[in-house]
Amino acid sequence: xxxxxxxxxxxxxxxxxxxxxxxxxVLQQNSVALIRKILLSSKEVLSSSRIIxxxxxxxFKEHVINIAYLDADQTLALxxxxxxxxxxxxxELPENLKGQIEIIWVTDQDQILDEKxxxxxxxxVDTWGGERQPIELLTSFSQPNATALSPxxxxxxxxxxxxxxxxxxxxxxxxxxAVVSQLQAIWEALLQxxxxxxxxxxxxxxxxxxxxxxxxIFDEKLACCLDTTLLFSALAxxxxxxxxxxxxxxxxxxxxxxxxxxxxxxxxxxIQSLRKRYxxxxxxxxxxxxxxxxxKFTVALETAKQYIKDATxxxxxxxxxxxxxxxxxxxxxxxxHHEKKSHLDHSEVEWSAVSIPVYEVDQPxxxxxxxxxxxxxRLLDLSLRNxxxxxxxxxxxxxxxxxxxTLAKLEDALANxxxxxxxxxxxxxxxxxxxDNEKQHVNQYVDENLSRKLLFSPLETQxxxxxxxxxxxxxxxxxxxGGANTLFLAIGFLEWKESERSKKTYxxxxxxxxxxxxxxxxxxxxxxxxxxxEPRFNATLLQLLRxxxxxxxxxxxxxxxxxxxxxxxxxxxxxxxxxxxxxxxxVKAEAxxxxxxxxxxxxxxxxxxxxxxxxxxPVVNHLIExxxxxxxxxxxxxxxxxxxxxxxxxxxxxxxxxxxxxLAAVMSAALGRTFVLSGPPGTGKSQTITNMISQCLADGKSxxxxxxxxxxxxxxxxxxxxxxxSELCLQLHSSKAQKMEVLDxxxxxxxxxxxxxxxxxxxxxxDWKKLSDRLVQTRDELNLHVKNLHSQHQxxxxxxxxxxxxxxxxETPTLRLPDIDIANLTAEKREELNQVxxxxxxxxxxxxxxxxxxxxxxxxxxxEQVWTLAxxxxxxxxxxxxxxxxxxxxxxIDEWNEAxxxxxxxxxxxxxxxxxxxxxxxxxxxxxxxxxxxxxxEVDLNSIRRCKNLVSDLxxxxxxxxxxxxxxxxxxxxxxxxxxWREAESKIFPFSWFAKFQLRNLMKLYQVxxxxxxxxxxxxxxxxxxxxxxxxxxxxxxxxxxxxxxxxYWKGENTPWQTFEDAFNQWxxxxxxxxxxxxxxxxxxxxxxxxxxxSLDELSSHVQQLxxxxxxxxxxxxxxxxxxxxxxxxxxxxxxxxxxxQLQRSNKSWRNWLNWQVVxxxxxxxxxxxxxxxxxxxxxxxxxxxxxxxxxxxRQWIVYQFSKHPELNQFNxxxxxxxxxxxxxxxxxxxxxxxxxxxxxxxxxxxxxDKYKTQWTLLNKELGKKRRHLPVRELMRQIPDVLVGLKPxxxxxxxxxxxxxxxQAKFDVxxxxxxxxxxxxxxxxxxxxxxxxxxxxxxxxxxxxxxxGKGDSDEEIDEEITEDxxxxxxxxxxxxxxxxxxxxxxxxxxxxxxxxxxxxYYKGGLFTFPAPVAKDTAIQLHMVDGxxxxxxxxxxLGEAKAIVEFIIHHLKSxxxxxxxxxxxxxxxxxxxxxLIEDLLDNELAKxxxxxxxSKAGIEPLFVKNLENVQGDERDIIIxxxxxxxxxxxxxxxxFGALNRQGGQRRLNVAITRARQGLHVFSAxxxxxxxxxxxxxxxxxxxxxxxxxxxxxxxxxSEVDHKKKHMKKEFIQYLQxxxxxxxxxxxxxxxxxxxxxxxxxxxxxxxxNYLAGIIVDGEGYAQxxxxxxxxxxxxxxxxxxxxxxxxxxxxxxxxxPEDNLNKLDQKIKSIQSEKRVA
Length: 1717
Fold this sequence. Notes:
Helix content is 45%, strand content 14%. With 1717 residues, the protein is of the alpha/beta class. Strands 18, 19, 20, 21, 22, 23, 24 and 25 form an eight-stranded mixed sheet that branches. A seven-stranded parallel sheet has the order 28-29-27-30-31-26-32, sandwiched between helices. The longest helix has 32 residues, at 869-900. The two termini are 65 Å apart.
């Protein structure tokens, strides 16, 4: 739940809401937005906020809009939030009730910035909201599909059947009487229901009312006028009739069209137009309320007729809604899903399941045949609407008073280029002429004055003047807009009938002589001349005669001629002869001037007779056969950003500088691609077309350039002339298509064929390759620098962004981070480091300085979070236990220390060391015999071992004896015995035997078994016995000593020698163990005796407990700063206990401190130890810490990048700027050379004279003639190859293509310009003449309309009602042709002139450039007093007068100017255009010098309406809004064509024509436009535009808001440094991506900028090509008046102070120059 904060400053954040005041299902079903717009304004930068939209009661789901970023002083517009409605709630609402919309703007911390609560009326399903909703939604309540209507229709059908009056089949009979019969039958069927009248509620138009649906009417038998009107409309609609709902003040009635709905608007607010339609028999009106009075149908018709005709009740008329038009706009009948009330049947209840349904008008599936048939019908109209078949005298024609004799003479005179003035017959004096002779006198006078070059008309003088003005203007417009002359003198008329029984006759002109009417000034009269083109017979009439009457007139192709032109009399004679047998037909020798378009017939003929051949062209075939399938797959198109890599300059032939979007289109054309090129206003379409033509010509391709607009053709031709390529171009449109003009154009180049020196002087080679090679080197060097500077690296930086940050924050302290692997650092890792640093900073902020002093070192190296409340309790318990355990341990160990004479230890590890001694002693003592050790401790181990060895030897010797002897033998003198034995052995036998025997007997005495030993045994044993005796004596000596030393432990030879030795070793081990602590043996033995009787278990337990407690302690570097892991065993107990006490005193800070230690340790591990130490030393905010990290990372990474790109170390800005300048000069030289190279290539035609000798001969013959030249079409047919060689590029309109190009003419490339204004059927023929098609236009601008086709039609009902037709552009886009787009806007010298359209219609996608002014006032709104006369003239006189006054003032201000500012006027309708033209003509008649300047130059002043202004541009445009409140103060929401679907396209055209200023004249304020009354996007945009024109500010759109924000650090750094020097600097001037980075204000010229600074930053790098970046952008800015200075970031990073001084000097220099100027 959002918690509301303290009250906000309302000026800081504000929110405005535009919403409807009422809602019901009809509104939702028809996609009418509940909330039209939310405006958010902030005075400061705001990140991460959101809009929450709720309803009460909950009739839509809560909707949230997230807003990532909003800059200071910006207003963001959120258009039409997509709400999800509760359909069931809106269905079942029983009564109207009040509801609310709650809109809350909150931050991401849920702080409320602003909130609004809007009251809204929630209406039931059957409630019409009146003017609170778009009024056309009323037609939703006409329900033709309700089943309650079925009985009525059945009854009506039976009535018709009984009267033999047909059936309920709508318009199928094509009979108006049949329609009336159906209406009467419906009326009579309704009378059977005996309905009763009920009164309407008061003010129902404003507030609306509940409407009875059909079932309720029939159930209750009650109905008001609105109920009966909608009921009758539903019935008529059900049978296929088109109806009108007529709204009067307090009343409704119905109208029904007697033919299918003509071309009318959805809302008709002019009763006069209804009267005209009624008088023509196209519509009837029915007073349906009379159903409740059982009145006859005729009475209902008559009563409604009086409503329409009665002038006294005209003021009551409000408007009429055309039901069929509403259906076409997607307004469908109300459908209900279930029965809401008892009086509703199920057929009326059919709801859509979606929240905002999208309705599509059901269209029949169009086949190839129906598609082509429709095109053919559009091209050739054989109905009576066509004035070539049914000519009527109207304001666009001038009847002439001529006899048959005069007609021939007139044609001859015109053929001889004679001109004629117009006079009225009433100017002929009839004084003294008898009445009977008046006619003869007039005829004679007219005939005689023909020689005086006078033409007479039966019109009165004033009427003639008006007609001449109308015809003059209309013919001039048609020539400019259609590219072909449509003004003809019709000589001879055929009076004909549809059948013999027909009473009505029609007049069809026969011979059509092309003419032109001229006027030098507003004061001079009008003259008639022949237009240099061929006379022709009415081909449409001939087709009608062939098709409907099987009458084929021969002898008219070619036309008969005489000495001066065609033979008029013979032609009339041929026709008379052909129709002589046709009853009721007659040829009249009459003449009239009028507008006729016959070229469409040639288009029709082309399509009708050559369809299969036309289909050989891929696009034509696709449009005919498979228009809704993807176009054939083509190879990849050039990408703007890859152009420099993909193409070398040698391949590019673009004489005009082209931006990357243009060049991509040019190279796509060069590659043979077929595509659509979208060109928004001012994006250089003509420039691109010029370059496309040049490129194609360079590649040897012939080009047909087609545009319906003469202005578009002229501007391309001017550009081709500008680059020197006009000699390769042939203009075949408007006046340029006259025979002499065509021949003159051909002569310009053909005469080179007769120049003997021309070919000889032609260079075989050009400098083209040399120029190209030099250019590519410079271009690639510039691109390489940008690549080095702006390539995005894995670290997440480009070199520029890193340098920008570092330079902006150079004062940041330097930290060396050697543990960071800067070469491999990634953006993800850097972001991770940033998060760690932010976490560290946040945690560090929780640590006070006192805390640092007390706790520093505590928890050092902690790698994970340990602190919890339970942990802290446990840790403190550990600390307490440590003190106890230390005390207990000391007590226990004291007696051991005393026993061992050890000193007292104060560290655990020392105690553990002593304990180890104790433990070792105790372990040994338990296994040792201390008494024995007491004996043995004084004995030498060697003596024991000697005894042991003697015993061992004795045993070994004894074991060797042969005999067994008792111990007595060892008492004998064995040495003597041995001596005697040897003596015996030395004696001889037998003496020796006796001696030995004697000794053997002696030895017997000592034997155990008393056996006499053998001599051998004695000899063996005696030495051994001798040795044993000796060893026993030795042992006896030792034994005496040992028995005294070892006491009872001595056992002689049986002594346990190993026990003695083990005891000795134990003693030695005791001594070893405590040798370093105790040397006194007595004390040692005492300690041993103590150890024998005492246990170490308790002491061991306490040691272990203390050690376990210490292990639970965290690292503490205050106790042991030089160790990674604190060894508490090495800490003095006193220090340890004091530290724990100190820590306990700060225990409340442990949580924050230990959390800090964790994150600090993370910093250490991440290689950020220097940063962590800095944070510990001094508390910093997150931004400062992040800056400290990232700036130092940037420094390390920049150094690394400079080492990778050594050239950066030597970068010099001045040298680089010189390189840029060289590139621009080389590029311009390359462009200039392109044209010469192209012409050089096409001059090959002159070296092939023999190849086309016949064609050259024919051409030379025609060039030598003075008159009677071949028709242009015939000439071109006969010299196709020479024509292409001389003029490989033709510039034509679709009409002139049909008129002058033979059907066999083929081109390599066809380029259509302003294709959004060319209908499909007009384009097909021209399209088929090219192998490759390029369709150029803008589907956000004007579609084709029936406006220009009015010359073919004789209807004059409502010239403002024009039908939008399908364009070749829309058709190609629908057919999925690839689309490229131009996006650099050049036209507007002030961004405001394109800003509205750029945001509204092009989603901010145009690159626009700012003017060097601080406040852009190029658009001005002039509010004037005026009313809209919607009934009669449909003009605004007050506004027109103000505009004419402004024009005169402007023209006066331009007198004497070398380059006067050109002017154009755009009006919303034709009648306002005519009014302004009339008023202006009257004023200019007073000022001849102003009229001269208005017509001067290639851009004369124009006054045009929305329908024909596309393609034009002027310096200053005046926009006449025209519409306003009427005389009664009422404002209709009908703004003509603007109300229609796509009406905003017209507005887009109107407001984008100006180069320097747009002046909007309006008597209508934006606040008066009530968007609740209309759902038209065009009207909504008009309101927004008027607000923009008045305020000069445009709200930020969601598209703009989502755009990526560029790095500004370097630019902000420059701004800061320059401001310190005293300059007034604005940041980021311009709304587009091509703005000026920094602008220096001019203190002398307030509101202007002195200079602009361009930084080689992200905007600079975004340019797709070097030309975009280093040539075009500076050129455009300079043309707009900027003095620009380039700043190079590498230079500044290396030497900021030097570069600052240089920049300061440059600005001062510019300042000085401007002051001098």
